[in-house]
Amino acid sequence: MRLIMSLVLLIFAFAASQGGCGANSAENVDNVGDGLRKVTIRVDQVPLEVEVADDEASRARGYMFRDPPSDGGILFVFPAERRLSFWMKNVGFDLDIAFIDSGGRIDQIERMHAWRQSLVHSRRPAKYALEVPAGWFASQGIQHGDTVRIPPEVKARE
């Protein structure tokens, strides 16, 4: 079992290193050490710095095998709107997830519980999913129907 887990981690590390982002000239985008870039988005009127998971490997990994975020979150970017499904396999802390359409409208917010492998589905097609620490949306007064402004240079890399 330990060997299998080590191989899985090695595969994820290799995939992340191969999918690393190049430099971006936009002022609000930075590269982070684990291969994901950071960008500042606005959720309603609240600025939020997020890591961008914009390829298959980074979207599959998400917060797996990581420490809980102290602030910020992960913005999952897909090539086109579709029904999305997420789970909490190998994630040891609760998160909230918002499913967002291509126009930036939040269609749904759900709580995802640590370690649960049952899927959380978007009710409608979504282009983005935003994972943040559990309770963040409520603490900021963010709800269904609010708008997320995402810089235009943030696109899926498929």
Note down, in words, how this protein is organized.
The protein is 17% helix and 35% strand. The protein has helices spanning 2-18, 56-61, 136-139; strands at 29-31, 37-43, 46-53, 73-82, 85-86, 95-100, 106-112, 120-121, 126-133, 148-149. The strands form 2 sheets. Strands 1, 2, 3, 4, 6, 7, 9 and 10 form an 8-stranded mixed beta sheet that branches. The chain has a two-stranded antiparallel ribbon with strand order 5-8. The protein starts with a helix and ends in a 9-residue tail after the last strand.
Q: What are the key terms here?
A:
alpha+beta; 3 helices; disordered N terminus; 158 residues; eight-stranded mixed sheet
Largest sheet: 8 strands, mixed
How many runs of DSSP E, i.e. beta strands? 10
**What proportion of the residues form beta strands (DSSP E)?**
25-35%
Rounded to an integer in angstroms, the radius of gyration calculated over CA atoms is 15 Å
Coarse structural class: alpha+beta
- Overall body shape: globular
Number of helices: 3
- Distance from N terminus to C terminus (CA atoms, Å) equals 33 Å
Order of secondary-structure elements: HEEEHEEEEEEHE
The percent range for helix content is 10-25%
Topology:
Elements (H helix, E strand, L loop, with lengths): L1 H17 L10 E3 L5 E7 L2 E8 L2 H6 L11 E10 L2 E2 L8 E6 L5 E7 L7 E2 L4 E8 L2 H4 L8 E2 L9
Parallel strand pairs: 3-4
Antiparallel strand pairs: 1-2, 2-3, 2-10, 4-9, 5-8, 6-7, 6-9
Question: Quick recap of the structure?
Answer:
With 158 residues, this protein is α+β, with helices and mostly antiparallel strands. The protein contains 3 helices and 10 strands, in the order H-E-E-E-H-E-E-E-E-E-E-H-E.
